[in-house]
Write a structure and sequence with these properties.
single chain, 407 residues, mainly beta, Pectate Lyase C-like, 11-stranded parallel β-sheet, elongated, cell wall, cell wall biogenesis/degradation, PbH1, signal, Pectin_lyase_fold/virulence
Length: 407
């Protein structure tokens, strides 16, 4: 999955040869400046980036070809970098700052759900230490979520970086800020490693998830600092074998599996492991959220070593999600949630209910484990509570507030 060692070596080579453009070809480096990028932060450089990408990707003789974005400002209109490439690995080295258009009109006639997309590539390594700035305020100001009565409001906005149908690839050491919507989307991928990112957007920016994974397998997400207006990390349908660790989250909505099954589809999510998460001022800690109309399963999820500071819902399962919050009628279907553990949760909750397992009365949650949980209220001498609906399992090692699980 890696490539970080190669990136470090290439970064040193680039630093040593940046003043000598004639050396690039011998090092298999493709500098976007050599392909016409103006790097003034005002003129669209997407065509130059595509030329550099095509030269690197299609070169049959280049070993570990590297597209280099120097330490300058580059405005890019929406662009798709496509594979497959000739080499086993290809590097995309961001030393400068990539800027999104500030006007939503740049997406007219194009896919409004993406800005920088990488598609059908094996061995892709995107690395920093540069910046990707989504400059998303124009999209936020016309979001239907916050402006439902605005004529022409938009429900869909561009994801900053989207990896689609990529394999054995990595994303590391990048600073993301102010994406119009989700910052990083992994879709239909296998064998992706994401590490050492910072992701920032205002707490009230709509749908600005940090990282969302959909229909992908075999991911490692490690050492990420996230503060946004939505989930720090979210897991979507048809996803399995994901390891998430060493995450700082806040503000935001915590670590979520879901929402799942919104279209009535069959959900398949399993083998999700999340550990060493530090939450500060978030809406949720560990959450599983499924729509009533869905079916299928979520199974084999482990949440452990969560450290909560002023978190509203440290542990929450909502198996009864519907369009009218709080007015969901019982349905004779649902997503089966089983073999889920919450262990080593410590810190403070800002609401009275620290553990809320709201399972379907028709499709129970089974095999739930609560272990070594010590949560306290932010209010002095105030006791927290647990609420369970049709949640079955057991508790170990001391649980506060007390477990409400049925055996």
């Amino acid at each position: 999955m890696g490539g970080s060692g190669t990136i470090v070596l290439i970064l040193g080579l680039v630093s040593a040869t940046m003043s000598c453009s004639n050396s690039y070809k011998s090092l298999h480096i493709f500098n976007v400046l050599d392909y016409g990028a103006l790097s003034n932060g005002i003129t669209d450089d997407s065509k130059a980036f595509l030329k550099a990408w095509t030269a690197a990707c299609d070169n049959p003789r280049a070993e570990n070809p590297t597209v280099v974005i120097p330490n300058r400002n580059f405005l890019l209109n929406p662009v798709v970098f496509r594979g497959p490439c000739q080499a086993k690995n290809i590097n995309f080295l961001i030393l400068g700052r990539i800027l999104a258009p500030t006007s939503t009109t740049a997406w007219e006639g194009l896919n409004p759900s993406q800005w920088l997309a990488f598609q059908g590539i094996t061995g892709l390594n995107i690395a920093g230490p540069g910046w990707i700035d989504g400059r998303g305020s124009g999209w936020w100001d016309q979001s239907c979520k916050y402006h439902p009565t605005l004529e022409g409001c938009t429900k869909l906005a561009p994801t900053a970086v989207k990896l689609v149908s990529c394999k054995n690839s990595s994303l590391s050491d990048i600073h993301f800020i102010n994406s119009s919507q989700t910052h990083v989307l992994i879709m239909l991928c296998d064998g992706i490693k994401i590490s050492d990112l910072t992701i920032q957007a205002p707490y009230n920016s709509p749908n600005t998830d940090g990282i969302h994974v959909h229909a992908s397998q075999n991911l490692i997400i490690n050492n990420i600092v996230i503060g946004t207006g939505d989930d720090c990390i979210s897991i979507g349908d048809y996803t399995s074998n994901v390891q998430i660790s060493q995450i700082q989250c806040g503000p935001g909505h915590g670590i979520s599996i879901g929402s799942l099954g919104r279209g009535g589809n069959s959900v398949q999510v399993e083998n999700i492991y999340v550990s060493r998460v530090y939450l500060n001022g978030t809406t949720n800690g560990a959450r599983i959220k499924t729509w009533q109309v869905g079916n299928g399963y979520v199974r084999g999820a482990i949440f452990e070593q969560f450290y909560c500071t002023y978190v509203k819902n440290p542990i929450i399962i909502d198996q009864n999600y519907c369009f009218i919050r709080g007015a969901c009628q019982e349905l004779q279907r649902g997503v089966q949630i089983s073999n889920v553990s919450f262990s080593d949760f410590y810190g403070t909750a800002s609401t009275d209910v620290a553990i809320n397992l709201n399972c379907s009365r028709t499709i129970a949650c089974t095999g739930i484990l609560l272990s070594k949980i010590q949560l306290k209220s932010v209010k002095p001498e105030h006791n927290l509570t647990s609420i369970c609906t049709n949640a079955h399992g057991y508790s170990l090692g001391g649980v506060a507030p007390s477990s409400c699980l049925q055996s």
